[in-house]
Design brief:
Blueprint: H1 2-23, H2 55-70, H3 83-96, H4 118-143, H5 152-166, E1 168-169, H6 190-196, E2 198-199, H7 201-214, E3 219-227, E4 233-243, E5 246-250, E6 270-272, H8 274-277, E7 281-283, H9 285-289, H10 304-307, E8 311-312, H11 316-329, E9 334-339, H12 342-353, H13 357-360, E10 368-372, E11 377-381
Parallel strand pairs: 1-2, 8-9
Antiparallel strand pairs: 3-4, 3-7, 4-5, 5-6, 9-11, 10-11
Helix pairs in contact: 2-3, 2-4, 4-5, 4-6, 5-7, 6-7
Length: 382
């Protein structure tokens, strides 16, 4: 009788274990890096926010990434994080993965992403493949642009000009992008800016991010706010880009002016330092609250006008007339210049408004000027 008792006890334990397992499946921790092939669209180390996650957060990030990229909704519910950890994961997914072409619904900047529906998951991997193919075609077109060159700055310039020339900012969606559910969430994807022809600021930023990362140039998205004439804060997205070892702010949306005559030599928001960009752009408080850091931007060497010799100082009275004359002689119809400080900028603007013919030429031939006071920028047209 004693000999039979042991196997009966073992059988009972196995039965109870099976019943318990039917109620709660114990899952192995997911990998700390996604398995979907699209993860390697560019060097994975360029995923800036992902690199700041803990290993536990990376596992949930990877499960949700693969949920979207592979169409497996069950992966979304990877356990093991508190609410704060899940918000960090969601923020990284939203800001760090332009290759996903993910169109999430979130509650404001830094909000919580909702689990995708099964029908959406079933078709999205095919959408990613198709949209990425269009973006790769756009990259080939970028390589043929006249701005293209060997340096990272020239590549950045070519991407900026491609987006500005190929994409139109969608004013109808401007205020609904974050304040409410966007009727056309495709406008927020990298595809919208690189190949779709129509985007909002998030699409512009995602497009620049994807293109530069595919060119091995570190680039991240900086969400935040900009202010209108009435002082109201509006959600906005722009980029930070690393050129020659230094980080800069780059807002391709604000480089896309409505007047097509202003496409020539118009780069007021290409590679600014943090002190300058903060005149118009404020940081997203959700990012810092979630514990993510941003790189410091203190250099000016790769600013467009510094690179072109048009970042003017105290000698602007000698430099500016020579630049205007040379531009006209070269057949240009516009010239942009920046000033190192507000005092020089205000002095030059006052001289222009006073009709100083010795600086700006005969009265009948004085160029028109547009003013961007916040970045000490004057844009001359004739």
């Amino acid at each position: 009788m004693k000999k039979r008792a042991f196997p009966l006890i073992v059988s009972l334990l196995l039965l109870l274990g099976g019943l318990t397992g039917a109620r709660a499946v114990i899952r192995e921790p997911y990998a700390t890096e996604p398995t979907a092939p699209v993860w390697s669209s560019y060097d994975p180390s360029l995923h800036y926010y992902y690199q700041q996650l803990t290993d536990a957060e990376k596992r949930v990030f990877s499960a949700r990434y693969d949920c979207v990229a592979l169409g497996r909704p069950a992966l979304w519910d990877e356990p093991g994080l508190d609410a704060a950890g899940r918000m960090r994961v969601d923020y990284a997914l939203l800001t760090d993965c332009p290759e996903l072409m993910y169109m999430p619904i979130e509650t404001g900047l830094g909000g919580v992403l909702l689990k995708p529906e099964e029908d959406w998951c079933a078709g999205h991997p095919g959408d990613i493949e198709r949209l990425m193919a269009d973006c790769r075609t756009a990259l080939e077109a970028i390589r043929q642009r006249p701005e293209w060159g060997e340096s990272d700055f020239e590549k950045q310039l070519a991407v900026d000009r491609h987006i500005v020339s190929a994409c139109r900012y969608d004013l109808e969606e401007e205020y609904s992008t974050y304040a409410s559910f966007t009727p056309d969430p495709m406008l927020r994807t990298a595809h919208a800016a690189l190949a779709g022809g129509r985007a909002v600021c998030a699409g512009y930023a995602q497009g620049l991010q994807l293109a530069l990362r595919c060119l091995d140039i570190p680039c991240l998205i900086a969400y935040g706010y900009v202010y209108d004439g009435a002082g109201r804060a509006n959600p906005h997205a722009w980029n930070m880009v690393r050129i020659d070892g230094e980080w800069y702010h780059h807002d391709v949306t604000w480089n896309d002016w409505d007047d097509e005559t202003m496409l020539e030599d118009f780069f007021p928001y290409l590679n600014l330092d943090t002190l300058t960009i903060r005149q118009t752009h404020s940081d997203d408080p959700a990012r810092s609250a979630l514990g993510f850091s941003l790189p410091r931007c203190e250099a000016e060497g790769a600013n467009y006008y510094a690179m072109k010799g048009r970042l003017l100082g105290d000698d602007w009275r000698d430099t500016l007339p020579a630049l205007l004359w040379a531009a006209r002689e070269d057949g240009q119809t516009a010239l942009g210049v920046r000033f190192r400080d507000a005092a020089c900028f205000e002095e030059a603007l006052a001289s222009y408004e006073a009709g100083d013919g010795t600086l700006f030429g005969p009265k009948a031939d004085v160029p028109r000027v547009n003013v961007w006071e916040d970045v000490n920028f004057l844009y001359f047209r004739w």
